[in-house]
Amino acid sequence: MTDRTNDAGQADRADQAEHADQVDRTDRADRADHSGEARDRTTGQAERSGSARDRTADQAVQEPDATAEQALTPAQTVGPFYGFALPYAGGPVVVEGGDLRVHGTVFDGAGDPVPDALVEVLQADAEGRLGGGPHGGLFGRCSTAPEGRFAFTTVLPGEAGDGCAPHLAVIVHARGLLLHLHTRLYFPDHARNVSDPVLAKVPDERRHTLIAVPDEDGFRFDIRLQGEHETVFFDV
Q1: Which of 12, 49, 84, 228 lies at 20 to 30 Å from 165 by C-alpha?
Q2: Lowest mean pLDDT among 42-56, 115-129, 194-208, 212-226
């Protein structure tokens, strides 16, 4: 009886020792897992810190020097524009069968012809009326040719009774212009030119840019958007 009791006690102690060993191994494994997670967190924090430093370094490299001379922004054209509502039935024919031809070329600031400008004219009829005259159609619109040329068929406008000499109001649309330009075409040697209130405000040395030049085809009126001999444009 005593031998069996001793054997049972030894078996219990062996089970307890084995259980304690299993618990110890489990604890070590848990500590190892926690240690690995801590290392992962530390590594992740280090990587994020490194990324933050990289971004800061990149920003420092990309940040422009406020004291350095900056290059000018390249010139940009406006548009694109679409042809809706631009086509005009009369086109460049202001007066059907008119005996006066007005033509010219649109030049840019470098002296090159502008191939895609749009020129419009408004004028009084031969009797000086600004609307409803017998010829009708006191308006014309002409797109420039590849060589920058335009031409209108019309009649010599009469005196409108407003104190101004006979003239054509000219409107220019062109690439690079945020707003269209207004100018006037006057005819040379007209008696009213000397008393025209608009011409009187233009300096003598620039007045010639508003006077058409007679030639074998009628009257030539070149329009220079910029540069030497720039056409006089008005604030309207």
Answers
A1: 228
A2: 42-56
How, if at all, do strands 100-107 and 218-220 pair?
Answer: parallel
- The amino acid occupying position 75 is A
Q: Which two tokens mark 2?
A: 């005593």
- The pLDDT tens digits of the residues spanning 5-24 come to 445 455 556 555 555 556 45
DSSP state string for 88-114: -TTTTBSSTT-SEEEEEEEE-TTS-B-
113-141 tens-digit pLDDT: 999 999 999 999 999 988 755 545 589 99
What whole-number distance in Å separates Cα of residue 123 and Cα of residue 69?
A: 50
Q: For residue 119, which of 89, 97, 86 has the smallest C-alpha distance? A: 86
Cα separation, 103 vs 7, whole angstroms: 129
The percent helix, strand, coil of the chain (3-state, each to 5) is: 30, 20, 45
Q: Angle 171-174-178 (CA atoms, 0-180°, nearest 5)?
A: 90
Other C-beta atoms lying within 10 Å of the C-beta of residue 89 = 7
Identify the H or E element spanning 19.
helix 2-62
**Coil, strand, or helix at residue 202?**
coil
Beta-carbon-side half-sphere exposure of residue 155 (alpha carbons within 13 Å): 19
- Tell me how far apart the alpha carbons of residues 169 and 152 are, in angstroms, rounded to a whole number: 13
Number of DSSP helices (H) and strands (E) in the chain, helices first: 1, 9
The tokens describing 187, both together, are: 């005819």
